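Whiteboard transcription, Tuesday session. T.W. wrote the C-alpha cells on the left side:
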C-alpha cells in the first residue's frame, strides 16, 4: 500500500471507527490504538507520516505522548494533530506549545479533520502532498504516472513504480524488506520476503543506476543519491 501512514491514538472506539473510515477513504493506511504507552511503541514500528492524537486517552495522556515524541530525535519533526474536548484558549495554547502542529476541538467534522491533516502534511512534509517528486535526477509525475531519470523516460512495472514512489517520498531513509513488503504490496501476508529483492533488482535495472537504490547490510534498502559517483 502506497498511501500515507497514519497513527490514530483514540480510545473512543466509535469515534476511532469513524475517523478510520474517513482517512482510509482518503487513501491513508491507518494504525490505531487507544493507549498512550502503546502509541509510543507503534510510532517506532509503523513509522507513520502523521499522528492524530487525542488529549484524553488511556495510560499516559495525549499531551505527554506529544511531549515525549518531540524529545526523540527520530520523531522530533513528526507531524502531530491533536484532538480534544478542551476548547479553552489556554488548553489550545498548551497543546501547541507542547509540539502539536495543529489542534481540532470535539465535536468536529471528519471531513474537516482529514482536510486539516492534509494541510499539516503539506506544511510539514510537502513531498507527501506534491504532484511531482524529485530526487537524485529522478522525477516522478504522480498525476501522469510517469518517471524520468535525467530527463529521459523510465519504463517501470506497477510494483517497481510503487517501490520507487515510496523511496522518493522518503529519500535517504532505510527500509527493511518487511517494511517494504507491508507498505508497497497489497495482501503482503501472501508474499515472500525475497520478492522484495527481485523487484529491487528490476527497479535498479530500469533506472540504469544500481547504486541509487543502496543496499544497507543487515538493514534493508534506501534511495540514496549521495552514494553515486
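and on the right, the sequence the group agreed on:
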Amino acid at each position: 500500500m502506497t498511501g500515507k501512514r497514519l497513527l490514530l491514538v483514540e480510545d473512543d472506539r466509535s469515534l476511532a471507527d469513524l475517523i478510520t473510515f474517513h482517512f482510509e477513504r482518503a487513501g491513508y493506511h491507518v494504525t490505531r490504538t487507544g493507549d498512550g504507552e502503546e502509541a509510543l511503541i507503534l510510532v517506532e514500528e509503523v513509522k507513520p507520516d502523521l499522528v492524530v492524537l487525542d488529549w484524553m486517552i488511556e495510560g499516559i495522556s495525549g499531551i505527554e505522548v506529544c511531549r515525549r515524541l518531540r524529545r526523540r530525535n527520530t520523531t522530533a519533526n513528526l507531524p502531530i494533530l491533536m484532538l480534544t474536548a478542551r476548547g479553552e484558549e489556554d488548553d489550545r495554547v498548551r497543546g501547541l506549545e507542547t509540539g502539536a502542529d495543529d489542534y481540532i476541538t470535539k465535536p468536529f467534522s471528519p471531513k474537516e479533520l482529514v482536510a486539516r491533516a492534509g494541510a499539516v502534511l503539506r506544511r510539514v512534509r510537502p513531498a507527501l502532498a506534491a504532484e511531482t517528486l524529485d530526487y537524485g535526477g529522478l522525477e516522478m509525475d504522480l498525476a501522469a504516472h510517469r518517471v524520468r531519470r535525467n530527463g529521459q523516460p523510465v519504463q517501470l512495472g506497477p510494483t517497481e513504480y510503487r517501490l520507487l514512489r515510496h523511496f522518493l517520498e522518503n529519500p535517504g531513509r532505510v527500509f527493511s524488506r518487511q517494511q517494504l513488503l507491508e507498505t508497497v504490496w497489497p495482501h503482503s501476508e501472501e508474499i515472500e520476503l525475497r520478492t522484495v529483492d527481485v523487484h529491487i533488482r528490476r527497479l535498479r535495472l530500469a533506472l540504469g543506476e544500481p547504486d541509487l537504490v543502496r543496499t544497507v547490510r543487515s538493514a534493508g534498502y534506501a534511495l540514496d543519491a549521495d552514494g553515486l559517483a
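Someone added at the bottom: The mean pLDDT is 85.
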